[in-house]
Every structure is written in C-alpha cells, then in structure tokens.
C-alpha cells in the first residue's frame, strides 16, 4: 500500500500516564493529523495514518511500517490531548524518528505541532528528522511534498526549517490559514484505525457507568472522537502555548453547517456518541453556540459531549440548550483561588466562580474543574486556598496540575533565564510521568509543589462530601471507580530522593 505521505501519530500512554493509562486516560483521535491528512489527500497525494497510540510501536515496527507504506515523506504532528501537552509527546516522537532512520536513513521525516513550532531549531538539531513545519502547517506541508518530488524550490516554501549542510535554515515565515472552510474542510477519519479503538475520558462517561456491562466501562467509552469548531484563543495566559501555532491571540471559526456535517458523519457512519469539542474556548460566542445547539437539537442525536470554557464566558441563558444538545460536561480553567496568583500569569476571572458552577450544575451539566499548583506567586498557603476552593465548589471531577513552563509559553521564556528551572529532558514536562519536574515558585521548591499536588489529589477524591455527591448523582460504580483510581500510586523521581 503505497503512501506518498505517511502521517505517524506519536505517543506512549504507558510512559506518559504510568498505570493510569490502562483505564483512567482517554485515547484521543489525532485531530490535527486528521485535518492535515485530509488536506493533503485533497491535493491529490496518496495518504495514510499510522496511530502509535492504537497500533503500538517497538524496534521492529519501523521496518514493517516502511515496507508496508513505502512513503516519500513521513510527517509527525506532535500534539497531546490539549495543546500544552505537546512537549510530553516529544520523547515518543523522537524515539520513533530514531528507529525509522536506523532502518532507512534516506526517508525524509518532518515534525510539526506546538512543541516543534516553539523550538524549531533545537528540534531539528536534536532529533533524527530532516524538517520542522512551523505554524499551522497545511501549505508548508504541501510545498514540502512538491520539493521532495522535485517540483518546488525549498527556499520558496514558507514556514519550513531545514538543514543546509551544517547550517539550520528557515524559509520565510508561514502564513496563517485565513479561510478554514476552504483550506481545512474535513477530517480523514477513514484513514484512522477502527474508531472503536479510541476511548473517551473515564469521567466523560460517569453518567452512563451504571449502564455498563464491562469492568473497565469500555463498552460505553467507545467509539469516541474529537473535533474542532474553531482554532485559536483570544487570551494570553502566560502558562499556555496555544498561540505558538497561530502566531498571535485570536480565534477563527468553521461554519456551523460544516461542523454539523462532521457530527452527522461521526454519528451516522462511525456510530460515535462520545465527542470532545477540542476548541480552547468553545463557549465564547453565545449566538454561535446557540445556533449550533439548535442544529443539534433538531437532529435528536443522543450525544455525550464535553467542551472547554472560561468561567467568565459562560452565558447562563445558553445552559439549557447546551444540555439539550448533548453537552454533558463543561471543562473550566479555574486555576487558582487567589486573585494575585492568577494575575501573575494574566489569568483574570471577573465572574463569581461559585455562582457560575452552581448555574451549570443546576442545568444538568457536569463540571470538570482544572486547577494549577505552582504558579509564580504561589506559596503553601495559596495552594491550600486553591485546594479548599476545589472542595467547596465540589465539581463532578477535577484535574490538579503542577505548573509547567511549556515551550512556546511566556512562562518558558521566563524560566529559561533561571538556573535549573526547566527539566533536563522532555519527560519532565509530563504531568503524570515518573520524570515530572514542575516549576518552582518564588516561594516554594519544585519538590514541594509536586508533593502538594499529589497529596491534594488524594485529599480531594477521599473527601466524603465529594464521594457522597458523586454516589448520589452517578451511582455506586463511579464511587468504586474513583476508589480504584486512588489505589494507583504514581511514581515520582523527584519525591524519591
């Protein structure tokens, strides 16, 4: 099966999530890879996708994959479940590239995505690759294929980093996509492994656990897919690196008719019910969201959707429609209880968090609360305030993150000026890995931050008020599942010394 362009979606769930990977993490469809694969195929090139998260990878895989696909170009888009997780995917991407080159040093390999776009020169120097695609990448990739086929001058390709003998060279900066409707008009879901291999987050399906006949709830967590309705973010939080791809803060949209056509395909062709809107800020434009809800309500699909929002962009008048359209979960970046701590990273929340969450829950929508420990102005007292706020809000599920200075973020620029603030390897940027190394704050060491986070996680999920709430709302299976999750202890190198 010849593929002029072979997309390899890198990953290593076991390395990234340790034992949580077996049951407690999602296996996400590669959104950006699917978009670009569809784009390139529409340009007339034979295209395939090999998803490592589904089909696996070891030293023997490179030979088999190269023999099976015989690609003219291999492309790895280095993303994670969300943009800031790109760096934690780099170890897997690097290893895959190394294996491929050890078998065939002549096959060209390109990397794109948030991390390579943030550190293009370093990526090109350190990894066994030939090109870095900086930015969104669609037209850069098209130009690169033409160059490989002898039909384009490499210096005319915008947004491409390459090696010119021993010198790292950059062509002209890439242009951002202006018309999503015409330029990125679909997903190559048909090139992915069987969609049933992808699984929703455990909490995404809490409301259905009692219906499950499987101990790992796999029968209700699959099939599953992610998609964008928009690209970008108009905000500039210092801990986020999303705007690395898009050049500057801002947001652009696909038409709602296009979005709904994708959902039609997922439901009718692939029998998908569980969907993630991967937009950084889905709940931003009330009129747009309302129209999308109306279109979905008309179809009477039985969907289970989750989406991101900001506390201060939630329009209470929309909540009933969101629920009716199938949005069962809203994920909110609450980050910190302390206004000064949030302000230090330009995360300003002007709404009353408690009232917003109460309104969401009152309309039958569950809340995933995201919190961060270790922002620059954090100390043990402010981190305890954040934990207490999380317990008071009593969201249906939470993520507790340590602060990472992800490449492409303003925090990374700041941390780069400090001694020993950044991990020595990319594994250190992974939230759940053995190598995790968060940022120290102005008052608290990295070790103290990580210890506080891991202890806070246990305190939250053993809190009797929370357990009673989820038991009454979702049933005994969810409570038992949470207890099982707590039995898995993450190994932390930083806490062993």
In short:
With 497 residues, this protein is α/β, with parallel strands linked by helices. The protein has helices at residues 13-17, 31-42, 52-55, 61-69, 86-103, 114-118, 120-126, 138-148, 180-183, 218-221, 243-246, 256-268, 286-299, 319-325, 339-343, 353-362, 380-393, 410-415, 446-462, 464-474, 476-486, 493-496, and strands spanning 5-9, 47-51, 73-78, 109-113, 131-133, 160-164, 167-170, 224-227, 230-233, 250-253, 274-277, 304-309, 327-335, 366-373, 397-402.
Widest beta sheet: strand line-up: 2-1-3-4-5-6-7
Strand content: 15-25%
**Oligomeric form of this entry?**
single chain
Which class best fits the helix and strand makeup?
Answer: alpha/beta
Low-confidence stretches: none
Name the helicity range: 25-40%
Question: How many helices does DSSP assign?
Answer: 22
Roughly how many Å is the radius of gyration? 22 Å
Count of domain modules: 2
What characterizes the major β-sheet?
A: 7 strands, mixed
Distance between the termini: 50 Å
**What is the CATH topology of the largest domain?**
pyruvate-formate lyase- activating enzyme
The count of β-strands is 15
What's the rounded overall pLDDT mean? 94
By CATH, the architecture of the largest domain is named Alpha-Beta Horseshoe
The CATH homologous superfamily of the largest domain is called tm_1862 like domain
